[in-house]
Amino acid sequence: VLSGGELRRVLRPGAELLLVEHGLSDDAGARRWQRALTPMWKHVSGNCHLDRDPRALLAHAGFHTGELQARSRDGARWLSYTYEGSARPR
Q1: Full-prediction pTM beyond 0.85?
Q2: How far apart are alpha carbons 88 and 17 in whole angstroms?
Q3: SS3 category, 86
Q4: Which 3 state secondary structure label does DSSP give 11?
């Protein structure tokens, strides 16, 4: 996992970060499952967190996200909620 500073360092000037990342659902029931399962899930999935908010993390790291599409995919809503789009360093 790269930090925001590391992402900015490896991106060429003017480049954008393209992303598809699963994260915190907009559905309250799915969010409860995500928060309950994350402590166990991160141990079996290489420190992957189901309950992170990609928009907030990117903003905190100094990126402008533009429009990210967030939606649930087929399957388990707590696992399949994804964010797709791009971000640019501020």
Answers
A1: no
A2: 6
A3: strand
A4: coil
